[in-house]
């Protein structure tokens, strides 16, 4: 994203604070638990101004991140080329600045990382592999797909989420750098995502992983990819993931849902950006009706137990709830939680946002239960 990439791994590392505290587990089938916040963890973070018009319920820590992000003065992504959009500041930058200003301690990583390039149709894809330190395994395996609307972001930007899952679940995490649009149009990212999953299934043992315990996790566009991987695995008769965690997933193409209307101008994601992302990835807008994009129209029967995490102040909030209901209607076991007062992209902000700590711990608990 920002052209000075040397700072990104450090910034992402700062975000990846492991936690064990979480709100109590509530088992649901098709309803979304709404989780209030515990704002005591970062009481020193005080926003400079009043809550934004588009997010009156925003929590102070979340607002502090958004204020810092806005302070960089970048041009709106939807007005830029993809190449220029990737140079904009990102929420990671804002969190890093708050970490430094508030002297928040950087924890020592509990995982080692390595890289692997794999062959995919028409090119190569890079995998970043997180392996718990100090053990021989076999560990459960999580295949992780980052967000960014299929257009922006990279493994560094989403390092926080991948590292936190590896540490909290005590699992090998394989983070997939699928190819981005508009250089690579639909369904390239989807094909890359599944090829990477196939590679992990075949090579789990060499990663110190347990081939019988593989799950998929994704955020935003990555949440869409993770669900599609489960669908493709089912349809191609290879091992279906034992669980999928979908964090504010893109699940349909209708941008007139209530959450799109309520949070049309939200940050860091708004309706205009989602339109732009869609135009960058799809060749024609009609492709948005394809079940790979509109998961709510896909055949969902036979998918693995699913955890869905949503944010209150997010145009994609209703995508998550709609998908949860469709999965439940198809007989899939679904647990879902909504986190109040936070925006899209909150999941990786555990260094400064209490709801992110809780959401990461909730996801980790769901995965650990599935791996048992």
Automatic annotation (TrEMBL):
Pfam family, one: Abhydrolase_3
Residue spans of biased composition, Polar residues class: 29-43
Domain spans labelled Alpha/beta hydrolase fold-3: 142-347
InterPro entries: AB_hydrolase_3, AB_hydrolase_fold, GDXG_lipolytic_enzyme
Molecular function GO labels: hydrolase activity
Alphabetical keyword list: Hydrolase, Signal
Signal peptide: 1-23
Listed SUPFAM superfamilies: alpha/beta-Hydrolases (SSF53474)
Region entry Disordered, spans: 26-57
Coiled coil: none
Protein name per its UniProtKB record: Alpha/beta hydrolase fold domain-containing protein
Organism: Pedobacter petrophilus
């Amino acid at each position: 994203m920002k052209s000075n990439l040397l700072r990104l791994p450090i910034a992402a590392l700062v975000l990846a604070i492991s936690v064990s505290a979480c709100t109590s587990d509530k088992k649901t089938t098709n309803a979304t638990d709404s989780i209030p916040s515990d704002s005591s963890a970062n009481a020193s973070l005080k926003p400079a101004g009043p809550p934004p018009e588009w997010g009156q319920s925003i929590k102070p820590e979340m607002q502090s991140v958004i204020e810092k992000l806005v302070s960089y003065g970048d041009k709106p992504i939807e007005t830029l080329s993809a190449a220029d959009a990737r140079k904009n500041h990102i929420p990671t930058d804002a969190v890093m600045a708050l970490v430094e200003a508030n002297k928040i301690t950087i924890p020592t990583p509990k995982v080692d990382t390595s890289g692997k390039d794999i062959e995919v149709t028409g090119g190569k894809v890079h995998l970043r592999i997180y392996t718990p330190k100090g053990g021989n395994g076999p560990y459960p395996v999580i295949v992780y797909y980052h967000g960014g609307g299929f257009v922006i972001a990279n493994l560094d930007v989403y390092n926080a989420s991948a590292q936190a899952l590896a540490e909290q679940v005590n699992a090998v995490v394989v983070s997939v750098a699928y190819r981005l649009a508009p250089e690579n149009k639909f369904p390239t990212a989807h094909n890359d995502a599944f090829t990477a999953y196939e590679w992990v299934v075949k090579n789990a043992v060499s990663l110190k992983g347990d081939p019988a315990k593989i799950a998929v996790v994704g955020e935003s566009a990555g949440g869409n990819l993770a669900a599609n991987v489960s669908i493709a695995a089912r349809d191609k008769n290879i091992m279906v993931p034992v669980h999928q965690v979908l964090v504010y997933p893109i699940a349909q193409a209708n941008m007139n849902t209530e959450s799109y209307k309520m949070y049309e101008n939200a940050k860091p994601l708004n309706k205009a950006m989602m339109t732009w992302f869609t135009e960058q990835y799809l060749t024609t807008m009609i492709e948005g009706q394809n079940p790979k994009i509109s998961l709510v129209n896909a055949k969902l029967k036979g998918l693995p137990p699913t955890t869905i995490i949503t944010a209150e102040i997010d145009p994609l909030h209703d995508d998550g709830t709609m998908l949860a209901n469709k999965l439940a209607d198809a007989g899939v076991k679904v647990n879902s939680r909504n986190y109040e007062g936070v925006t899209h992209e909150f999941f990786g902000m555990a260094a400064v946002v209490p709801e992110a700590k809780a959401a990461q711990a909730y996801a980790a608990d769901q995965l650990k239960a599935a791996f048992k």
